[in-house]
Amino acid sequence: MTKTWFVTGTSRGLGRAFVEAALARGDRVAAAARDTSTLDDLVAAHGDALLPLGLDVTDRDAVHAGVRRAHERFGRLDVVVNNAGYAQVGAVEELTEQEVRDQLETNVFGALWVVQAALPYLREQRGGHIVQMSSAAGLLAMPLGAAYHVSKWSLEALNESLAQEVAEFGIKVTIVEPGGYATRGGKNPDPLDNGHVSAPDPAYDGLRRRLAEFTRDQPAGDPAAAAQALLTLVDAENPPLRVLFGQGFHGLLQKVYADRLRTWADWQDLSARAQGLPVPAPGSEPVAGGVTTRG
């Protein structure tokens, strides 16, 4: 069955690949980009199946107008992909207030405006699929990425809440967490050369070198392959709430989550005292209400 898509951040990279894949299989797409001239070749190839929308996701009124225009053009919305975003790179000490606010305006508020604009249409038609492009950076944190991590961790929470709120309307929500993708010249984008880097403090030069080395060592995924995976995802009867795109971070994520669980367990005595509860006996497990059960 033909689907109608609304996708943000479509001028290049993964967003562009998503649009190409959806159009290639006969779907209809409203493609939002700051510069719609980047979509001219797709308009020429696919005609009325593509609606290019000049859109800055930080403009709430413009987002609502764009979603409304897409619905008026196609009559429904089946897949809404929040893809627009960028990464601000800088140590916490280096970040300016404006840099952090700009990061959140695009990555968090922009996604929120799209969801709020689309939900009335999805609720009315009793169905649809909201796909939030997050990142492995939404599941762990690394140095020099605090602003970006804040935005992606926020999106993880926002969409987890959203999924529970809209399930009764037949609306599905999936958070996609990509690793590195070859979106520039067949390589992973260099985080230190992306146009959004804070003024450097020499105290953190060593971290910058190590970050660049780590990024170069990560496997660079194929955006076209990610687009095909997304098609499978939106066609699934029961899609997951979360899914990783790429395996580069899988091992690291396993370690991060194991470390968190171990730390909470190691410090559960202090946790109990902080709530004024009896210290759990060795081998016991806390349950709801502060009662413990002997393992």
Describe the protein in words.
This protein has 295 residues and is an alpha/beta fold. It folds into 2 domains: 4-248, 3-Layer(aba) Sandwich (Rossmann fold), CATH 3.40.50; 249-295, no CATH class. It is built from 9 helices and 9 strands. Helix 1 (13-24) packs across helix 7. The longest helix is centred in the middle third of the chain and has 29 residues, at 97-125. The radius of gyration is 21 Å and the shape is globular. The termini are far apart. The model is unreliable at 288-295 (pLDDT under 50).
Which properties best describe this structure?
295 residues, alpha/beta, Rossmann fold, 2 domains, seven-stranded parallel beta sheet, two-stranded antiparallel sheet, 9 helices, 9 strands, 45% helix, 15% strand, globular, disordered C terminus
Approximate shape = globular
Helix and strand content put the structural class at: alpha/beta
Please give the count of helices.
9
CATH architecture assignment name of the largest domain:
3-Layer(aba) Sandwich
Rounded average pLDDT = 91
Concise summary:
The chain has 295 residues and is α/β, with parallel strands linked by helices.
